[in-house]
Amino acid sequence: MGWPNIFQRGTLLSRFSHHHIVVFLLTFFSYSLLHASRKTFSNVKVSISKQWTPSALNKSVELPVEVWNSNHLFPSAEEATLFLGTLDTIFLFSYAVGLFISGIVGDRLNLRWVLSFGMCSSALVVFVFGTLTEWLHFYSMGLYCCLWIVNGLLQSTGWPCVVAVMGNWFGKAGRGVVFGLWSACASVGNILGACLASSVLQYGYEVSQLLRQKKIWKKIPTGH
To answer: Would you name any one GO CC term (predicted)?
Structure first.
């Protein structure tokens, strides 16, 4: 028995133009990058926990207790880990609520603008969370919670919009094959995020910590 028409050579590809390919790739990598940003956060939790819990007992550098105490957010790594878990819960809850809202907004507004706004704004929130607060040495649990709530709402624009765009461009014929390939975007994003985080983590937090230690050393009295 011969193969169904959909699997015959040239039958599926002949239905699509280069516009379909562009739409497929753009939506694929858009959602992959959103997943990559989530994966990087989970991969740097240990480093964030250490960053938030400096201790006078830290053997890497000898500093006065009052200097360490002026730079810590949590008294122990366990409390920092608990707070990071709370951030995950906050993100998932806001993301779930945002999916419903984003679906309604996407039906009423231009999908491209909604998706672009969500991705760019989410990138800005992640930048503020991980970089700007470190540059300013401003650590606040309330700020982190607010940022992660906003991040969940913004990232929720991704899934409804990319699915709607794909549904508009690809008809019923061959949709199973197309969406089967396209659905790998989440896994690709997780792999990409893990690779990126592991490749730059040794530079990011260590460099920022060295810079902060340099500033801290300037605060230490040198004596006569």
So the answer is: membrane
